[in-house]
Amino acid sequence: MEVASFDRASELKAFDETNTGVKGLVDSGISKIPRIFHHSSLNLANPKPLPSDLLLKTIPTIDIGGRIFETSMERKNAIERIKEAAGKWGFFQVINHGVSLDLLEKMKDGVREFHEQSPEVKKELYSRDITRQKFHYSSNFDLYTSPAANWRDTVTCFMAPDPPNPQDLPEMLRDVMIEYSKQVMSLGKFLFTLLSEALGLNPNHLNDMDCAKGLIMLGHYYPTCPEPDLTLGTSQHADTSFLTVLLQDQIGGLQVLQEGYWFDVPHVPGALIINIGDLLQLISNDNFVSSEHRVLANRASKARISVACFFFTAMTPNPTLYGPIREIVSEENPPKYRETTIKEYTAHFNAKGLDGTSALLHFKI
Questions:
Q1: Are 90 and 256 in contact, with CB atoms under 8 Å apart?
Q2: Contact of 131 with 315, CB cutoff 8 Å
Q3: What is 2-363's CATH number, 2.60.120.330, 2.60.40.2700, 2.50.20.10, 3.20.20.70?
Q4: Which regions span the lipid bilayer (predicted)?
Q5: DSSP letter for each residue of 270-288
Q6: Mapping DSSP to helix (H, G, I), strand (E, B) and coil, where does residue 276 land?
Q7: How many CB atoms lie within 10 A of CB 326?
Q8: 261-264 and 272-276 beta bridge pairing
Q9: Is residue 54 scored above 90 in pLDDT?
Q10: Are strands 272-276 and 91-95 parallel, antiparallel or unpaired?
């Protein structure tokens, strides 16, 4: 057993020290994936095929009317649909969301261009130390702690509350990341008003709690995998954030766990995928659910691109204690979680890695 674990440690280090990620492996022409990427068959398998009555079930697509509802009834209907989706699926797609469709394409193109540029240029930005700079590129944030590595590389940038200096961003991403983060922040604030009302609260409640204060952007690159049945693009996990806004291309592979089954998240042209994060499940006292999800290894002939924007302040100093919102707890519905800071929550999540268990369990009362 010791030999195997030693091998794993040295293979992880060797992979990390190339500074070229999974893309570097693919460029080298490998036909077999290294053992560090092999996932257990339990994690890879769909536990059970979908029964016929669930085959047509899918996460809801909600029209938010360009963020301007013509009537109070239209607004009420959208809030009802969001309430149901957030409470049952933890996921929904929004259309007519007010973010320019042209910008969505430019954002995906910028991420692809960054990952497909010369490895010599990218290497300069490769880092595992997220505190050192606001923008960095790496492969597998939990490389040394997770049971198996995932077949993807990522650029990470802390966009708010303390935005990066534009000069610190690579040229192909500079303008688009700044503009996209502004538009996503604006969309996020709007969604938090609808989610506040869905909880029966004042529309400003979640924004007043600073749920939209922080934004972290991740640009994922999932290269074609030569052995997609042995690994995953992203392991099963739930997000740490209050809310996540995800832009994905048409290749697909994202799946959500619901009632013990994996459901594919379909590509809806021009839509953005919204999912509830752990912190919003915690403060909503389980009225909203942060669902486990994963990304299958890419079988397509070209790389899959996705851009995930997480609403939370992560490791930024923020002394605020977050617990179940007082206005929605009662004797009949007591708090289910203890209070925590975002920093404590994130530190626990990062130390645990993507191991398929919920970080929320650690904070249950």
A1: yes
A2: yes
A3: 2.60.120.330
A4: none
A5: T-EEEEE-HHHHHHTTTSS
A6: strand
A7: 8
A8: unpaired
A9: no
A10: antiparallel
What is the pLDDT, as a whole number, of residue 352?
Answer: 81
Please give the structure tokens belonging to residue 73. Answer: 């009834």
List pLDDT tens digits, range 10-52: 999 999 999 999 999 999 999 999 999 999 987 777 767 777 7
Q: Are strands 61-63 and 91-95 parallel, antiparallel or unpaired?
A: parallel
Buried-exposed string 256-272: b where 16+ CB fall within 10 A, e elsewhere: bbbeebbbebeebeebb
Q: Which amino acid is at 167?
A: Q
pLDDT of 139-153, one tens digit each? 999 899 889 999 999
**Close Cβ partners of 260 (under 8 Å, ≥ 6 residues apart):** 47, 48
* C-beta separation of 115 from 86 below 8 A: no
Give the full edge-to-edge strand order of the sheet including 232-237. 232-237, 293-296, 254-258, 261-264
The residues spanned by each domain of the chain are 2-363
Which residues 6+ apart lie within 8 Å of 280 measured at CB? 195, 206, 211, 241, 242, 243, 288, 290
In this prediction, residue 2 carries a pLDDT of: 42
Tokens encoding 193: 């008003």
